[in-house]
Amino acid sequence: MSDGIHIVDVDLGERCYPIIIGPGVMKEPSNLLPYCSEDQVMIVTNETVAPLYLDQLKQTLQGVEVHVTLLPDGEEHKSLQTAETIFDHLLEVPCDRTTTLIALGGGVVGDIAGFVAGCYQRGIDFIQIPTTLLSQVDSSVGGKTGVNHSMGKNMIGLFHQPKCVIADTEVLSTLPARELSAGLAEVIKYGLISDSAFFSWLETHIEGVLNLESDLVAYAIERSCRTKGEVVAADEREGGQRALLNLGHTFGHAIEAAEGYGVHLHGEAVAMGTIMAADLSFRLGWLESEEVARIANLYQRAGLPVIPPQELTAEDYLRLMAVDKKVKKGIIRLILLKKIGEAEIVSDYTTAQLKATLDSFSKACRLSCHRLLARILLRAPSADIIFGLFAPRGMFAHFDDFRQKKQQSRHPAARR
Fold first, then answer.
1. How far apart are CA 191 and CA 195, in angstroms?
2. What confidence score (pLDDT) does residue 2 get?
3. CA distance 107 to 67
4. Is 67 in the active site?
């Protein structure tokens, strides 16, 4: 590490590649040119990112023949039809197997471009230049590429590793606040699944990260990428451990599919899905109520929604979750939390336990809770109501237990 630049290597043997993190790293030709296989590149970007960073990238690539494919912006365009427009342009140029494809954009651009790179002439090199926090810490790393189907997210795709990832922290300054928060959903995830110390660090520094304090942002990205890189190196094709990276995603993908892609940002859906996973983990006797409270509180402080769509029923969730990629022999395998910092792939929960969690977040079950919540709000200090903003019926168990313990901590005599 030097001059605020961090490098994390994803150790895949001969296919090892660096993640280069720091301010201005996209402007440095030595970070890019060694990974361009020949003197021709195809940049894939979208109509939002192009006016901000396309010229800058072209300047970095001086001396290289550059072609550009411009895509519409939004998750709703993550489709085979959009991928076909890139294939068309590659063939029209024409581009051969020595062309390097560069993805300049967020997760949607990176996933589509990587998918095209993996398919075109049975595979060409590509480079990821993620421009959102979520794509810098998650989707650009690990080689998962693909497009959505109307029946499920990322149902059509392949594994195709990039030659390098350029995570320029300066680009985050143009990111809307909502997008920045969405990226923090994945950052928080890394603390939850395997790094309780990082989760605690985020509890201390989350406002600084939201304010884009340079050192804090770079550290959060590096630690997230290091965790993901280690998981990918150990289980590239998601045969086991890599599935832990999907904490909250099975519930979250169901929300995205039900609401329509683009209604919620991916990170927002993951945040809501993680709250549901935490609820089920509590029901299984693993998470303590204080841990559920800490998780919900950190997501809220990060500016993320924690209330799943009220109109979805348990039956809606079960139907949509049944097409999740982690389903095996008809059983929905879920990523749940034994504690903060330890996740597990779980399939031996009961249908009743899962349905209880799903029911607890439905509109019908919420109505009586909101009446109860109103009464609680009238007599409880705001500091006590960690769950006061969203508390569905099943979550009052966490709230009541947590509030009781907080009252005891204020009044030691109550513990005797």
1. 4
2. 56
3. 21
4. no
